[in-house]
Write a structure and sequence with these properties.
Bound molecules: protoporphyrin IX containing FE
Low-confidence stretches: none
Largest sheet: none
Helix content: over 70%
Number of domains: 2
Shape: elongated
Distance between the termini: 55 Å
Strand content: under 5%
């Protein structure tokens, strides 16, 4: 039996609910004949608007539920599944609510923010889907801590190896390589790349010297392994960075949407 995930949770319960919701709203929109023109202020407009506003408040509630259900992941999975599908259904509900009347006002601001939140949600979802698998592949199913330990033992081995050559310049090269951390600056996490990587330099220099001294092969292999482990860690932290960044869009945009939604509702009732 396949395990429940975000997409198929409880036999696609929330896909069915979201499709039903969208179809019901589209049908109501097609059947309802407004007195003048379709917009948020008809009876159907008010109904769809109320439904949309309730959905937004409920979607935001996930932030609270996530923290309450931290210990019960099964239940949280259902919440996130509902969040994803009903979040996408909201785009239809709110678009029908507007009656396609778009302008330069607080109502459209709320609508645009909502679309941005939904788009950012879809971006985040694509990261969630690709990353856990990608991250464990990146690390060859090892933890980042295990890779750091590997680098430490490679460094001990490099120190022993380099002593046998009695060359100041080689010792200096290896010490510089050992001082090379995962990143030189935090901005490098964005791309997972490090220019002027000391370990990479050490590999190049030793490779050239190997033409004169074949015994350097052991040291060369050691530095190549170090570089490979560093690259694995760089890719891992780069991917982790993007997983954190998307929430920096999704959550503040959600709060901006809530503020615009309140302004939208207050202005509608103020000018009623
Ligand atoms: C107006 C619509 C939406 C609002 C207001 C909203 C709001 C939120 C909030 C407040 C959180 C909790 C973040 C946290 O505290 O860590 C969240 C999480 C999330 N949202 Fe949305 N969201 C919306 C639509 C969507 C859509 C359409 C998708 C996907 C297609 C989506 C995907 C996600 C995902 C994957 C999470 C992370 C869940 C987790 O950490 O387990 N959201 N959203």
């Amino acid at each position: 039996m396949s395990q429940d995930n975000l997409f198929n949770y409880n036999h696609f319960k929330f896909v069915r609910l979201a499709i039903f919701l969208v179809l019901a709203c589209v049908l109501a929109y097609l059947v309802y004949t407004p007195e003048i023109v379709s917009y948020g202020g008809t009876w159907l407009g008010y109904g769809l608007g109320t439904l949309g506003a309730l959905l937004i408040v409920w979607l935001m509630w996930l932030g609270v539920r996530k923290r309450q259900y931290a210990k019960n992941s099964g239940n949280l999975r259902g919440w996130v599944s509902a969040h994803v599908y009903l979040g996408m259904a909201l785009a239809f509900v709110a678009t029908l609510h507007t009656g396609f009347q778009i302008g330069w006002n607080v109502h459209t601001l709320a609508y645009v923010l909502m679309i941005l939140v939904i788009l950012s949600g879809m971006w985040g979802l694509s990261l969630y889907v690709r990353m856990p698998q990608l991250m464990s592949n990146t690390l060859n199913r090892k933890s980042p801590g295990a890779i750091v330990e590997e680098i430490e033992s490679l460094d001990k081995e490099a120190l022993k190896l380099v002593k046998t050559f009695q060359s100041e310049s080689l010792v200096h090269l290896i010490k510089r390589s050992m001082s090379q951390g995962i990143f030189n600056a935090s901005r490098q996490r964005k791309f997972g790349l490090v220019r002027n990587c000391e370990t990479s330099k050490a590999c190049d220099v030793i490779q050239k010297k190997m033409h004169e001294n074949g015994n350097l092969i052991g040291l060369y292999e050691n530095q190549i392994k170090r570089l490979k482990s560093l690259k694995q860690l760089r890719l891992y932290y780069c991917q982790k960075y993007w997983l954190e960044v998307w929430l920096l869009f999704h959550v503040p945009l959600s709060f901006a949407l809530l503020a615009a939604l309140i302004a939208h509702v207050v202005s509608v009732f103020y000018y009623w």
